[in-house]
């Protein structure tokens, strides 16, 4: 009688379970990976579109206010004792300026004393200008100039006063300096306690190293006095920085039109526009015979945005062309610099009409970009939807993994039962074989 062969579950049937489970898992994993890969690539693509469009939006915003008008070129006399910058609000013209004095910081010096000499203890009350008093406590045994310096800096740091120690031939000198120039930075010091009176500004021994002078400047014979060496309110649109006192000497400051900042802004706008179009083309490119399409190939969003931007340019093309702008076959822009210079020289407000706050190109393009990039914009909406899809995909994967685990457990139970059945059949086969052998032996005997 033939015997039933059982290689054993672990030796034979167990090898089938991973194969069956892998076959069960493969279609689901492929689907999940495909969806995840596509969504991730599209999120990245929308991020690149957002970056390109945000660059265009930022560049367009530079024309807001008065920045779509001609700039100002500042010309100064040689070694004038001041520098100056001007914005588009500054009126064209010239001024005769004399720097009579610079604003300086108030500085006080103590009398020289031997190192580690204890002046006393108590408190110092330091007032800078009309500010609140700074209270500095000097403990007993901590009254050396070095200790007082440290106490002042610890308490007055960032409040308008600094203290340093200078070691001279006659001993140590405490130097107190205001961080504010002019009369607004002048210090007043009062003291209480024992021995600190020498550091009071009234009745003490402090020496004025710098009185904290006011800046004085004459502009066309008009005197202006201030506490700072930066003057940004004397003439509208002009900031003057004083560098050297030249009392009695007059130097010219002249303002003329300057088209170069406006031209640079126009070139930046063109570059940003071309970059945005390039991103839209790249992220929506169709596949070829030997290449796959881009992440947003066939998606309507890049096409809609591209048509909107090019439509805005087309609607204002005649004005753009007058300024020297040209469009390429791919929709990109370029600028004829010489033509731009000629037009701006004859019509300084040409860019303002096109790209200023109420400009014919500024308003519709800014509105369109906001609709794409805003918190409620198209790109954020699409990106949020894709992120939500990835989040739900994660949940689906977890459910799928549990189902596959159940499948694996079912196969294990089935093959275990099969193994047990085969073992039982083998045992029965062995018993029958034994009985038949005995019967055969009895017949032979």
From TrEMBL:
Q: Which residues form the Flagellar hook-associated protein 2 C-terminal domain?
A: 213-427
Biological process annotations from GO: bacterial-type flagellum-dependent cell motility; cell adhesion
Q: Where in the cell is it found?
A: Secreted; Bacterial flagellum
* The UniProt record lists the keyword Coiled coil: yes
The free-text function statement in the UniProt record for this protein reads: Required for morphogenesis and for the elongation of the flagellar filament by facilitating polymerization of the flagellin monomers at the tip of growing filament. Forms a capping structure, which prevents flagellin subunits (transported through the central channel of the flagellum) from leaking out without polymerization at the distal end.
Instruction: Provide this UniProt record's keywords sorted from A to Z.
Output: Bacterial flagellum, Coiled coil, Secreted
Question: What's this protein's name?
Answer: Flagellar hook-associated protein 2
Q: Give the family from UniProt.
A: Belongs to the FliD family.
Q: Which GO terms describe its cellular component?
A: bacterial-type flagellum filament cap; bacterial-type flagellum hook; extracellular region
InterPro entries attached here? Flagellin_hook_IN_motif, FliD, FliD_C, FliD_N
Principal localization? secreted
Q: How does it assemble?
A: Homopentamer.
Pfam families of this UniProt entry? Flagellin_IN, FliD_C, FliD_N
Q: Where is the Flagellar hook-associated protein 2 N-terminal domain?
A: 14-106
